[in-house]
Each structure stands twice: as structure tokens, then as C-alpha cells.
């Protein structure tokens, strides 16, 4: 674990690479990471029975169908608050609830062009039981339509289908705007723009290195 306490949140629309970014942060800085998507899958019996603390981060995309605030907030208090979180808070109400138990050190906002997000989401297929995500353009499975580890079928979620993507991104934008403005007004918001997570990562690494000592170099991640 890192020697200094750090509370960070990674915000971004569906398909922006929040999960990948948090995996890199956790490895490089020895932080624990919490994912609302992972927590939801496990709470609903689809996460393989593993504890959400320290498990791979995936974007569940369960926008709106269940309230996670009351269940997820207790996981974000000490001693598990040294880390990065993805997918939470999604709304101003969740941000205000988080304020009552935890003061954030910084918020990372990923700004990805709409067309890039649309292409990523439309090409995304998942393994339902684990939440493993594949992208047919840059991270395809070894066998088309089949999970690499289990050999089970992959599915495309309804909200990743092209006709649903635009509405999903608009919904995120409307809900996230007041959250982003809140953290911007506090001077803890750091925005990063680009189309590839690997190109954004060095800038995020530099920012975090100014807050907490890394345990891996940028090149080692």
C-alpha cells in the first residue's frame, strides 16, 4: 500500500477508459481501487464471488436501474479509502453524499470525443459473469464471440448497441455536468483530453506523482 493517504475519483463517460486508467493508477501507486460497476455485478450475483476491493475495474454501465449510493459509500471510508474509484459519483446527489463521509484529494476527468466513444461502445462485447470487456477493433477475443478464459459466449449489452449509444452519452453528459462543476469550483478537478488511454496516461501519472510516491515507473506500467 502507498505510504500516503490519497482519495481520488476518475470521472468520464461510458467507454472513456475509466477502468483501464484506474488499473494503471492502482498498479503504479499501490492504491486500492473501487468500481461501482464491479460492486453492482457482485451484489447482483454476477461477479464470481470475489471482493470488489482490488478486483479488476470494469464499467458496468448500469446507469439508472439501481441506486448504489447507500450500499457503495461504506466501502469508500477508512481503511479502504486510500485509492482510486471509478463510476462513482455519477450524480450531484451521490457527490454530496460522498462529501459527508470523505474529502477527495483530486478528481480526474477524462474528456473523449463523442465519435470515439460511439465507436468504442458499439464495438464492445462483454463476458457477463466476470465483466471482462473486449473491443472488436483493438482488443478482440482470440476466438470471435468467445471469452478467452472460460470459453463462454460473449454478449453485446443493449446499451452498447449503436442505436442506444447516443442517448446513453447524452444522459451521462446531463448528469455529470453539475458534478464536474462542483469539483472544478473546489480546485481539485483535473481534466485530460484525448482519444487513447495510453496517450493520456503519462499526464495522469505525472499529476499523481506530485501527490503520492509511485511504486512503478511510467514505463513499467
Give the name of the CATH architecture of the domain at 8-43 and 61-122 and 164-210: 3-Layer(aba) Sandwich
The CATH topology label of the domain at 8-43 and 61-122 and 164-210 is Rossmann fold
State the helical fraction: 25-40%
Percentage of residues in DSSP E strands? 5-15%
Count the E strands.
7
Looking at the structure, what is the overall shape? globular
| Order of helix and strand elements from N to C terminus | EHEHHEHEHEEHEH
Low-confidence stretches: 46-72, 77-85
Structural classification? alpha/beta
Keywords: Kinase, Nucleotide-binding, Transferase
Protein name: KAD4 kinase
GO molecular function, one term: ATP binding
Organism: Circaetus pectoralis
Strand and helix map with partners:
Elements: E1 7-11, H1 18-29, E2 32-35, H2 36-43, H3 69-72, E3 83-86, H4 92-99, E4 106-111, H5 114-122, E5 124-126, E6 133-135, H6 162-185, E7 189-193, H7 197-209
Parallel strand pairs: 1-3, 1-4, 2-3, 4-7
Antiparallel strand pairs: 5-6
Protein name: KAD4 kinase
Keywords: Kinase, Nucleotide-binding, Transferase
Pfam family, one: AAA_17
Amino acid at each position: 500500500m502507498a505510504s500516503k493517504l490519497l482519495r481520488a475519483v476518475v470521472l468520464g463517460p461510458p467507454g472513456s477508459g475509466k477502468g483501464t486508467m484506474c488499473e494503471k493508477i492502482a498498479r503504479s501507486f499501490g492504491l486500492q481501487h473501487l468500481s461501482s460497476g464491479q460492486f453492482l455485478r457482485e451484489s447482483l450475483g454476477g461477479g464470481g464471488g470475489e471482493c470488489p476491493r482490488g478486483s479488476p475495474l470494469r464499467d458496468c454501465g448500469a446507469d439508472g436501474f439501481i441506486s448504489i449510493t447507500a450500499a457503495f459509500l461504506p466501502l469508500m471510508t477508512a481503511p479502504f479509502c486510500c485509492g482510486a474509484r471509478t463510476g462513482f459519483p455519477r450524480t450531484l446527489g451521490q457527490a454530496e453524499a460522498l462529501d459527508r463521509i470523505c474529502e477527495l484529494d483530486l478528481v480526474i476527468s477524462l474528456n473523449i470525443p463523442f465519435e470515439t466513444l460511439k465507436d468504442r461502445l458499439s464495438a464492445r462485447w462483454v463476458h457477463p459473469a466476470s465483466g471482462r470487456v473486449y473491443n472488436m477493433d483493438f482488443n478482440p477475443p482470440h476466438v470471435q464471440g468467445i471469452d478467452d478464459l472460460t470459453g463462454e459466449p460473449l454478449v453485446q449489452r443493449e446499451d452498447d448497441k449503436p442505436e442506444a449509444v447516443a442517448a446513453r452519452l447524452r444522459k451521462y453528459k446531463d448528469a455529470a455536468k453539475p458534478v464536474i462543476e462542483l469539483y472544478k469550483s473546489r480546485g481539485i478537478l483535473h481534466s485530460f483530453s484525448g482519444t487513447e488511454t495510453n496517450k493520456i496516461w503519462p499526464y495522469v501519472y505525472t499529476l499523481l506523482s506530485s501527490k503520492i510516491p509511485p511504486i512503478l515507473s511510467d514505463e513499467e506500467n
